[in-house]
Amino acid sequence: MRAVLASHNQKKIAELQTILGELGVEVISQREAGVDIEVEETGTTFEANARLKARAVMEATGLPAIADDSGLSVDALDGAPGVYSARYGGEGLDDTGRWQLLLEHMQGVEDRACRFVCVICCAFPDGGELMARGECPGVLAQAPQGDGGFGYDPIFYLPQLGKTMAQLTPQEKNSLSHRGNALRDFQKEWERSPYGTDQ
Ligand code: IMP
C-alpha cells in the first residue's frame, strides 16, 4: 500500500518511515504527493489533532494518509505542555528555547515524572480509520545532555539507561520511544484490519 505522511518534520518522517517500511507500507511525503497543506491543530487531544491532519491530507491527495500528533506531558504541570508542545512559549522559540523555558518552569520542582505521548492516525479514502497510541515514561533532567534526536530529547532522561533521549542512536530511540511504541500498536491494528490484508 502507498500512503502519504502528513508531516513536514523531516526527523519525524524519517522515524516513521523506518518502521512503516517494515510493514510493507510505501510512504511518500506530502511534497511527493503534490500537496502542500499545513493543517491547523485545533484539537485538545492528541487523537483529535492526528485525525484532523490525516483526514485533511487524505482528502487533498485521495490516498491513505498517516499523521502523528505527539508531545511531552509533565505530571507536575498537569500534563502540560501536552498537545501544545510544539508551540510552548509562543511562536518566537525554537526547540532549545522551549526546553530551556520548561526547565525554568520546573526549577525547584521535585516531582519530575513525565512522558512522551504519540498518537498515529491513518485515514483511508473509503472513510475508514486506524488509530494507535504509544507512550514512553521518563524523568525531566536538571540540565540537557546529548545532541541527537529533536525537540525535548536533550532533557528527557531515561533512568533505566542513565541517558537522555538525545544520547540514543536512532535505533535505540525507536526501540523504546512513544513513536516506536505507537507504531508497534499501529502494526497490530493494521494487521487486524481489512487494510493490512488486501491492499
Ligand atoms: P506535533 O508536530 O504537533 O506532533 O508536535 C510535537 C512536538 O512535541 C514537537 O515539536 C516536539 O517539541 C515534541 N516532541 C514530539 N516527539 C518528540 C520526540 O521524539 N522527541 C522530542 N520532542 C518530541
Brief description of this entry?
With 199 residues, the chain is of the alpha/beta class. It is 33% helix and 23% strand. The protein has six helices and seven strands.
Q: State the strand order across the main sheet.
A: 2-1-3-4-5-6-7
Principal-axes geometry comes out as globular
Q: What compounds are bound to the protein?
A: inosinic acid
Helix/strand structural class: alpha/beta
Largest sheet: 7 strands, mixed
Q: End-to-end span in angstroms? A: 6 Å
- Tally of individual helices: 6
Task: Write down the secondary-structure element order.
Answer: EHEHEHEEEEHHH
Determine the mean pLDDT: 93
Helix content: 25-40%
Give the percentage of residues in beta strands. 15-25%
* Total number of strands: 7
Rg: 17 Å
| Low-confidence region ranges | none
How would you describe what is shown here?
This protein has 199 residues and is of the alpha/beta class. 33% of the residues lie in helices and 23% in strands. It is built from six helices and seven strands, in the order βαβαβαββββααα. The chain has helices at 10-22, 46-61, 95-105, 170-176, 178-192, 195-198, and strands spanning 2-5, 26-29, 65-74, 113-123, 129-140, 156-158, 163-164. The protein has a seven-stranded mixed β-sheet. Helix 1 (10-22) runs parallel beside helix 5 and helix 4 (170-176) crosses helix 5 (178-192). The protein is globular. It starts with a strand and ends with a helix. 38% of the residues are buried. The mean pLDDT is 93. The structure holds inosinic acid. Inosinic acid binds at residues 9, 41, 69-72, 85-86, 116, 149-153, 165, 177, 179. Inosinic acid (IMP) binds next to strand 3.
